[in-house]
Known about the structure:
Layout: H1 2-26, E1 30-39, H2 40-51, E2 55-57, E3 64-73, H3 74-84, E4 88-96, H4 99-110, E5 118-121, E6 143-144, H5 154-165, E7 168-172, E8 186-187, H6 188-198, E9 202-210, H7 223-228, H8 243-255, H9 259-278, H10 284-295, H11 298-313, H12 317-335
Parallel strand pairs: 2-9, 4-7
Antiparallel strand pairs: 1-3, 4-9, 5-7, 6-8
Amino acid sequence: MRNLRIAGLFVIIASLMGVLAWRWISQRGLVTLNYTNAPLAQVIRSIERQGMVEIHTNADLALLVTLRLTRSPVFEAIETLAVRIDAEARLAYIAAPTGGQISEVLAAFGGGARLDGWAVFSPGFAGRLVPGETALVDPRKIGWKVSADTDKSLQALLDQGAQKTGANFAVPVNWNPTVAAVPPAGKVGKVTADLLQTAHGQVREVFLLSIDARREDRPAPTESSEQHGGSVFSAPRGGQENPEWTAERAAARIAALPAEDQAEAGKRFDDARAFWEAMRGLPDEERRIKIEEYMSRPEVQLRMEERAALREARQTPEQREQRYRNYIERKEQIKGPPTRS
């Protein structure tokens, strides 16, 4: 009888452990926050711990933040925090021969300075290609199939990765080994890690909350940030976009959307792609007129309003009020001083 009781006790303990393990796995990567006027550094640490991610920002870490979320997907939490501090959230892969170099450039970013000697590869269109895309797509879910028939230097492949996935990549400008074999297709983080292992380097996956120091409503930038436009990761994309790679990026983002939204998103992208391809070769003035006509279409305006409304929904009431004040001020500036009769 005693042995039966002990066996039963073990069964109960095992069942409880199973339930706890299932709850831990099911909530893994979900973020719950309940902060009122908490330092930004504290909020970031909480998201990092719960979401198992690494976050860096060039914002003031003492900035007070109010943010409440319950079991939110980690990227939604990051995006909401970015809106609250008026920043842009970016997925980035920082690679170098040594870990110390990576730490150095991230420290420079956090200090609002640009570290010379780094090559940054960023996507066009801020990583988004689907007009009116409103669903939040975790950029880590985007797949990357490396094109093996192109330049196999590391920097050329990372530029390809930026165009195909929408992620940002940074490496020392004087480090550009040739990669003997490209990794198989997979999620961007896995492909990047495999690529850097082949190149005998190190890489860190980070989310950057980037504030543009050049904006008029920002405090005066430091000498280094003013000289370089904000940070090492703030430079706009340079170089030529590959239309096939950008189409792959759009297809990957569409595939990451809910199934019921994919068909409409695909149609929107095809329509937008056809329009922009038709703009090639047109004289500047004719192109400007056609773009203005396109942007004024009711369906395009509606999609832009939907995106703006979703971002505004993540703002605090104070942010929405300040945004309206800024709008009124800009409107008055455009009108100019009243004319005297």
